[in-house]
């Protein structure tokens, strides 16, 4: 038992997570609170007092921990510690995990919740009775917080990187902000966590090691909680949720063990039912012009992007091989163990949707066909060799299960490594394009969970808004986890903002801002309209508070977004006509639209927002059939149909 306790107390950071160095703010810098005043005239003195108080409580916490550790090391507790471990291990309904996290969680439970057989009290209660009179005032305050604590099931409602997380208890509804750097690094919004929250002076901290689960498991977790709580109350009538968690909170171990087992057993399949295996065929290219021109004419091949030099000669091209499925693509297999991996190019309203079957990248030296199964790759090879076989030569084929590394093609290892890195980058870009397209259509896709309504339709009623908000939380949890892991992700908050605008029927910017005559209803002007909406959304969500402090209301932000978008239109035309590879964004653009904005840092962030809006919209254009840029002067019917 001594080893477990030692790992618990020496292996954890302090409850408030202060092991991480705080960012320093200059005395004359703007105050981080957003008031617009200088730091020295706003929060400096308060922060200094808080820092002194934190230091005092940190020293008291360190001292208290050392005393508890010494108390627990006594031989008289060894037998109870062994019995406690047997109970803890049995709660997993199988082998408990053999890792440091479980040891820390066990020791935390042993200290605060397990009742020693001979005394009928917890170790922390015995410590207070026998050693409490020796403690200082701060140590006594911290000890009282531990005595009343219990495990809790919390939902993460906000993450503040480098500081902590805001939690809401699922059953009691109690809310608190927990200062814990580790939680802010490991959790994302709407995760569900099993942890212990302790009061430390005027704030809260997490104790021990937390378990967390994705939001998709929230319903099952709450069902288990209700079942266990009802069973507990049959023998303890009138007991509260906190009493139950104090006595039997450790029983949730079984849920997390089953959840991990489910993840390990998940099988990934394609729409045809084949096992997902990243399969790649590489060809040498003999005639790039003939290969690209032939692929462009094939009905099964969709153009994603073609890059040309100033002389309009093809440098490289990217295509997607797609086909209409013979049957409807199922949303799931229904067994909870099979995940369908499918890239649908048309809305789910199609009975037989068009499904992406593979990606084709080609340049002067090689053509790469990548598919999600061995079967698809063989079909794709037959298709390519039938139409362009005389201009390409097969080099090699690779197969890689999802999540498993590869040693690359036998031969030049450095070349293989570079190609693999390139493929990883390109795969991320393809996934990002898919996410942008998928979520771009989501608001207007009929969903069975909403009774066949689209999210935009459901959002018009109070009940529908609540249902849509729950779906958005599910999506946000998934995308935030992808973002934290460094993978391609989508900002669900932007979709939430668009739905709220759609529900109020009050678009901040109207299409008429970009066309006053029928001749101006071009695809390029529609692109500029969507760009202005995206710039507006980013400014409001990311910089709204600071812009309002500068006297800019939403109407002024709208005018700026329209003006900026129209100025970028000139850059777009130059880029297309002169073959420029990058957009040029300058201070002059912002200053001409916002004269008198004397804040270089803010101007930089506005330019970043405009650049991000441009890049995001351009990625979506690569798979959008409207072709706003390549067919920029053609009539755009969306001006007549409305923005959505």
Write up this protein.
The chain has 644 residues and is of the alpha+beta class. It has 21 helices and 14 strands. The chain has helices spanning 2-11, 44-72, 78-90, 100-112, 123-131, 137-147, 181-186, 218-235, 241-248, 253-265, 288-297, 374-388, 413-442, 455-458, 462-484, 492-504, 523-549, 554-578, 587-593, 600-621, 638-641, and strands at 151-160, 164-169, 175-179, 192-200, 203-213, 267-269, 278-285, 301-308, 314-324, 338-340, 343-344, 354-363, 366-371, 392-400. Strands 7, 8, 9, 11, 12, 13 and 14 form a 7-stranded antiparallel sheet that branches. Strands 3-2-1-4-5 form a 5-stranded antiparallel sheet. Strand 1 and strand 2 form a beta hairpin. Helix 1 runs antiparallel to helix 2 and helix 17 packs antiparallel against helix 20 (600-621). The radius of gyration is 30 Å and the shape is globular. Mean pLDDT is 76; it is low at 1-23, 327-336, 342-352 and 403-423.
């Amino acid at each position: 038992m001594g080893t477990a306790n030692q790992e618990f107390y020496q292996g954890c950071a302090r409850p408030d997570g202060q092991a991480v160095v705080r960012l320093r703010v200059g005395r004359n810098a703007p105050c981080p609170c957003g008031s617009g005043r200088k730091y020295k005239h706003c929060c400096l003195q308060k922060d200094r007092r808080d820092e002194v108080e934190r230091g005092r409580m940190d020293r008291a916490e360190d001292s208290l921990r050392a005393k508890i550790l010494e108390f627990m090391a006594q031989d008289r507790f060894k037998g109870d510690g062994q019995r406690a471990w047997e109970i803890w291990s049995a709660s997993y309904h199988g082998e408990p995990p053999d890792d440091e996290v479980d040891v820390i969680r066990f020791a935390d439970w042993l200290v605060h919740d397990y009742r020693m057989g001979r005394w009928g009290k917890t170790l922390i209660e015995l410590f207070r009775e026998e050693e409490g009179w020796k403690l200082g005032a701060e140590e006594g305050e911290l000890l009282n917080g531990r005595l009343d604590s219990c495990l809790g099931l919390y939902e993460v409602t906000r993450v503040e990187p480098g500081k902590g997380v805001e939690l809401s208890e699922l059953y009691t509804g109690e809310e608190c902000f927990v200062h814990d750097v580790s939680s802010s690094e490991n959790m994302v919004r709407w995760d569900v966590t099993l942890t212990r929250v302790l009061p430390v002076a005027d704030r809260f901290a997490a104790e021990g090691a937390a378990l967390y689960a994705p939001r998709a498991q929230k319903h099952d977790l709450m069902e288990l909680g209700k079942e266990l709580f009802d069973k507990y109350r049959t023998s303890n009538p009138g007991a509260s949720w906190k009493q139950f968690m104090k006595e039997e909170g450790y029983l949730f171990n079984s849920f997390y063990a089953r959840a991990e087992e489910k993840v390990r057993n998940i099988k990934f399949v394609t729409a045809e039912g084949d096992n997902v295996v990243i399969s790649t065929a590489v060809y040498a290219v003999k005639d790039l012009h003939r290969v690209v021109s032939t692929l462009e004419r094939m009905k099964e091949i969709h153009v994603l992007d073609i890059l040309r030099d100033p002389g309009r000669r093809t440098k490289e091209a990217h295509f997607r091989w797609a086909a209409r499925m013979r049957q409807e693509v199922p949303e799931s297999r229904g067994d909870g163990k099979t995940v369908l991996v499918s890239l649908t190019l048309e809305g789910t309203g199609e009975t037989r949707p068009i499904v992406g079957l593979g990606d084709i990248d080609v340049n002067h030296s090689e053509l790469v066909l990548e598919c999600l199964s061995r079967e698809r790759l063989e079909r794709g090879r037959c298709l390519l060799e039938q139409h362009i076989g005389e201009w390409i030569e097969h080099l090699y084929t690779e197969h890689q299960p999802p999540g498993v590394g590869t040693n690359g093609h036998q031969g030049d290892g450095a070349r293989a490594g570079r190609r693999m890195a390139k493929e990883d980058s390109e795969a991320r870009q393809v996934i990002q394009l898919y996410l942008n397209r998928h979520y771009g259509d989501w608001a207007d896709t009929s969903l069975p969970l909403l009774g066949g309504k689209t999210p935009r339709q459901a959002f018009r009623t109070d009940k529908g808004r609540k249902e849509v908000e729950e779906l958005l939380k599910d999506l946000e949890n998934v995308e935030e986890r992808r973002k934290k892991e460094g993978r391609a992700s989508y900002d669900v908050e932007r979709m939430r903002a668009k739905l709220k605008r759609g529900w109020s029927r009050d678009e901040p910017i109207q299409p008429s801002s970009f066309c006053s005559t029928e001749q101006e209803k071009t695809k390029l002007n529609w692109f500029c309209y969507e760009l202005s909406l995206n710039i507006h959304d980013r400014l409001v969500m990311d910089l709204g508070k600071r812009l309002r402090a500068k006297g800019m209301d939403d109407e002024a932000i709208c005018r700026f977004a329209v003006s900026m978008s129209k100025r970028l239109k000139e850059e777009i035309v130059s880029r297309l006509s002169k073959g420029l590879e990058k957009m040029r964004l300058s201070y002059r653009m912002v200053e001409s639209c916002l004269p008198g904005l004397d804040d270089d840092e803010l101007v930089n962030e506005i330019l970043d927002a405009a650049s991000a809006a441009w890049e995001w919209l351009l990625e979506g254009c690569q798979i959008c059939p409207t072709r706003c840029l390549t067919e920029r002067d053609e009539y755009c019917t969306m001006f007549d149909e409305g923005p959505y």
